[in-house]
Amino acid sequence: MPSEVDICNLALQQIGAKSISSLGDDSPRARACNRVYAHARDSEIRAHPWSFARARVSLAAKSTDPAFGYSKAYQLPADFLRLLPTREQTDFQIEGGDILTDDGAPLKVVYLRQVTDPNTFDQGFIDLLVARVARDVSEKINNSSRKLEAAQAIYLDAKAEARRVNAFERPPQEPPTDTWITARY
Questions:
Q1: For 61-105, what is each residue's pLDDT tens digit?
Q2: Where are the domains of the chain?
Q3: How far apart are the first and last CA of the chain?
Q4: Closest-CA residue to 152 (of 127, 134, 140)
């Protein structure tokens, strides 16, 4: 399975640059990869509900309630990147590292978590991350707008394909039954 360095080397290969042996190397390529890797990874995970990054948790209410507006506050998990909608969630707001809501404890949430181990990434996500890192470091390493445009095109293709395949792994969910609609029958 790939490591962070393997992913960065694939990205460097994609833009025609030499490989690195470590993200801590003292080279412009390693510094560029080190600068963008974690941000690109988290940004791409947050942008789409990847199956490998989904997590479910029941949150306990905090001991202090919000000053106004909502009756309960729940602390977000440490690895939280994005809250995903569920049928149980009603009215809520994310504010200051908390979920504010009137829903009672425990609050059951599904969220996208920060995944740092490349061995748990989906293969399509690895391809997307390689393309994203290549796009993000291309201009800095190559000083070529033509290579940046090529990297951008590869990135957009990788994103579309990875999202399409990931969507097949999650069958459509039935929406909750609304009494207003079923009253007509």
A1: 999 999 999 999 999 999 999 999 887 666 889 999 999 999 989
A2: 4-49+122-168, 55-113
A3: 54
A4: 134
